[in-house]
Amino acid sequence: MNIIYAALAYPLGRLSDCRSRRPLLLVGVGILISADIVLATANTVGQVVIGAAIWGLHMGATQGLLSALVVGTAPAHLRGTAFGFYSLITGAALLAASVVAGWLWTAFGPAATFMAGALFAGLALIGIVLRASPEAQKSGLVRASLVGGWHLLWAIIVALGWGQPLIDFIF
Question: Which of 8, 20, 61, 147 is deepest in the core (most CB within 10 A)?
Fold first, then answer.
């Protein structure tokens, strides 16, 4: 993963400087979904290596891009604060994700962990698409899709029989 990430971070970072960043972000999240699915279905060491390599491609496509989005959004005099806040939110999200991933791995195995990652990445992909659409923002579609996304996520959790264990874990 790190070799692929290191090899691709610079060229994909340059690409994000020359082209629209939104399509690269969408592709990067799509690649993450692919990596999660490969890792969820992996039965051999070779398949795990391929999944990790795809994950490295995702990292190369998105990590520099996300930093560029922070720089492009924050006023010059608040960039340090913006990066600090970005790091705070990212760290908190990674901590929460790690707790949930550890619970899923222990309770249901690695496949469930990576499929949940693919599901969350898919919801993020939908959010990115809808967030960028002024029509969706005016129509309230973004708010409705977030509510619908949570309902869909809960329906999947219940359908897989994970609802009660998740409630027990939280409470």
Answer: 61
CATH (domain of 67): 1.20.1250.20
CA dihedral defined by 141, 64, 96, 109, rounded to 10 degrees?
A: 100
pLDDT for 54-88, tens place per residue?
Answer: 999 999 999 888 888 888 888 888 888 888 888 88
Burial of 15 per CB tally in 10 Å (0-12, 13-18, 19+): middle
Alpha-carbon distance of 47 to 105, in angstroms, equals: 18
> Which of the two residues, 49 and 83, has the higher pLDDT score?
49
Integer Cα distance of 11 and 57 in angstroms: 11
Domain count, the chain: 1
Domain that holds residue 14: 2-170
Query: Model's pTM, two decimal places?
Result: 0.75
Is residue 26 predicted with pLDDT exceeding 70?
yes
CB 55 within 8 A of CB 64: no
**CA-based max dimension of the chain:** 50
Alpha carbon distance 145, 13 (integer Å): 31
Measured distance CA(6)–CA(60) in Å, rounded: 7
Which residue has tokens 């509510």?
Answer: 147
Q: What is the DSSP secondary structure assignment for residue 166, as one 8-state letter?
A: H
